[in-house]
Write a structure and sequence with these properties.
39% of the residues lie in helices and 19% in strands. The protein has 282 residues and is of the alpha+beta class. It has two domains: 1-116, Rossmann fold, CATH 3.40.50.2300; 118-282, Histidine kinase-like ATPase, C-terminal domain (Heat Shock Protein 90, 2-Layer Sandwich). The protein has a six-stranded antiparallel sheet, covered by helices on one side. Strands 1-2-3 form a three-stranded parallel sheet, with helices on both faces. It is globular and about 60 Å long.
Length: 282
């Protein structure tokens, strides 16, 4: 663990009570220790910038290609987050952060099987990103945290887009990829001046909205929970409200012909405090 924050170190110790935690004063000292012996997990310090931590990650990959690294920083840009994904960071957090989500991510990094990332950056700028992600929930949770850091949106648009994207991503991994880690979903995120678009494509055969009886959107008006009977019969987890939730949060939800590809569209309020991402990144 990098940095002088004793309170953070104590918090990490409660998350990983059976782990031995070693401290390093700064990134240079951390790399010297990492170079001398292997570590399962590295946590950067909140007093460094995202750019500094990505540079540590690049150095780390040369000597410890499979060590998991979680970036924790006070200063970050979407470009830093993208760079960390290219270098296969396990996760990325900038302040202020949710301690609950951070703790869950640390546990995921500590308890997961042998790690080979599972997220591939196909093409990326802060305004247009294309990714491929493995069909498992751990990879999905990592991707959602990266999305939270990249999406430089105002509220409530950021929360709406994040929640809608989460529903469609989990649906794609569950129903299209069937939680098969050998399968991948394709994700695109486009941030223009007055609109945000998220595209998710899964490897499945697709579906028709008229045929998905396990989803709440197919319920008749006089039986609002009929879909749960079908879910129970199929052994599916409780739920089925993802499509309805997505449609309520996004301005437009468009499905491809096969049904295994969906586009979420959210329009920005040009009269409000929103500033185009290109200007904020200068």
């Amino acid at each position: 663990m990098v940095g002088p924050d004793s309170a953070l170190a104590a918090g990490i110790a409660t998350i990983l009570p059976d782990w031995k935690i070693e401290r390093a004063e700064d990134n240079a000292a951390a790399f010297a220790v990492i170079e001398s012996k292997p570590f399962e997990l590295v946590l950067t310090g909140e007093n460094t910038t995202g750019e500094d931590d990505v540079e540590l990650l690049r150095q780390l990959r040369l000597v410890r290609p499979h060590t998991r690294l979680i970036i924790l920083t006070n200063e970050s840009t979407p470009a830093d987050v993208i760079a960390s994904m290219r270098e296969r960071a396990f996760s990325y957090f900038s302040k202020p952060l949710s301690w609950t989500i951070f703790a869950e991510m640390v546990r995921l990094a500590a308890e997961g099987p042998c790690w080979d990332d599972g997220i591939e950056v196909l093409s990326a700028t802060p305004a247009w990103i294309r990714l491929a992600a493995r069909c498992d929930t751990g990879t999905a949770n990592r991707l959602l945290q990266f999305f939270h850091e990249i999406a430089a949106l105002p509220e409530p648009e950021k929360s709406d887009v994040a929640a809608a994207f989460r529903e469609m991503l989990l649906n794609a991994i569950e129903h299209g990829g069937r939680f098969d880690p050998s399968q991948y979903v394709e994700i695109s995120y486009l941030h223009a001046r007055h609109v945000v678009m998220c595209r998710v494509k899964d490897p499945g055969e697709g579906f028709s909205l008229d045929e998905i009886r396990h989803a709440a959107i197919a319920n008749p008006p006089d039986d609002p929970i009929r879909h749960q009977v079908y879910r129970d019969a199929l052994g599916l987890r409780p739920g089925g409200f993802g499509v309805l939730l997505t449609q309520s949060l996004a301005d437009e939800v468009i499905y491809g012909e096969k049904g295994n590809e969906v586009l979420l569209i959210k329009y920005m309020n040009s009269e409000g405090p929103y500033t185009p991402i290109q200007k904020r990144l200068r």
